[in-house]
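#struct-pred
JK: can someone run the complex with heme C? inputs below
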Amino acid sequence: MSLRRRVKLWQWTALLSFIAIAPGAWAEAPAPKAQASKPPAASKTTPQPAAAPKTAIDYAERYAANCAACHGSEGRSELPLVPSLAGQHSFYAITQLFLFRDGRRNDHPASAAMSALAKGMSDADLRGYSDAIARLPAEALATAAQGQPSPPRDAARFERGRQLVAGHRCSSCHGADLAGGGQVPRLGGQREDYLLIAMKGFQSGARLGYTPAMNEALSGLKAEDLEDLAHYLAQGLSNGQ
Ligand code: HEC
Ligand code: HEC
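RT: done, structure tokens with the ligand placed:
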């Protein structure tokens, strides 16, 4: 990684950390759904520590209203090229929402819908939605791993994918169980079609990411390697399979 890239990465991380931890304008955060916002007087009857759960409920409601139609009510997507969000990490999610809002993640036609949504988000929204995403239980992906909505398992391709993951040290960042963590996304149980388009985007450079880690990790892999990787990752869950 060049020094310039390292500096850029550091700046991004600092900026994202600021959004993630800044006290922000929680109280003023616009609520697109009128029923989700409570009059300020309501908070007076609630002791101070209860403020965070209320925000959490607001964003869970907003997720249901604004995101679930595409990403699934439990975060398990049934739509082509739309990623599942269940079990995804808050810091990863906020990073991606930030990239969408900034117009920096726009690598295939379906990106436009997500970018358009993110454009209107405040920093408080980025944080609130990311925390709501992190609370969607990863178990919702287990059904996907059993063959739905991903195509049924092809034993030979699954095995090739497993070997590619081992040979290219994907687990050194994404974890032995492919569950990710922090700024690194969960891969196990993600939709196969989405995994493939994401990797193609990184490989071609169309998806830049906030770090060049992925662009580098996939260099040298062939088109059919990416297909086998996607097939394995969609089904290779935290059970060591
Ligand atoms: C019209 C369908 C649609 C709606 C509604 C929608 N999304 Fe998305 N979302 C997408 C698509 C498609 C992608 C993948 C885009 C890409 O790969 O460039 C995506 C990607 C994401 C990602 C990145 C996931 C990853 O694994 O990288 C996050 C986070 C996200 N959406 C959050 C949200 C939130 C929060 C909402 C509600 C405010 C929302 N989305 C509403 C279609 C939608
Ligand atoms: C050096 C650490 C590192 C290694 C090694 C690595 N990754 Fe990643 N991966 C990341 C990070 C960080 C992201 C988030 C990138 C971003 O948006 O900036 C990511 C994102 C992804 C995504 C997109 C997920 C989504 O929800 O959009 C896929 C798919 C992926 N990696 C697959 C792989 C595969 C397959 C390998 C091995 C060939 C691999 N990664 C190796 C760090 C790594």
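RT: quick notes.
The radius of gyration is 19 Å.
Residues 66-67, 69-71, 81-83, 85, 88, 93, 96-97, 105, 107-108, 110-111, 113-114, 117, 129, 133, 185 surround heme C (ligand 1) (CB under 6 Å).
JK: thanks, will look after standup
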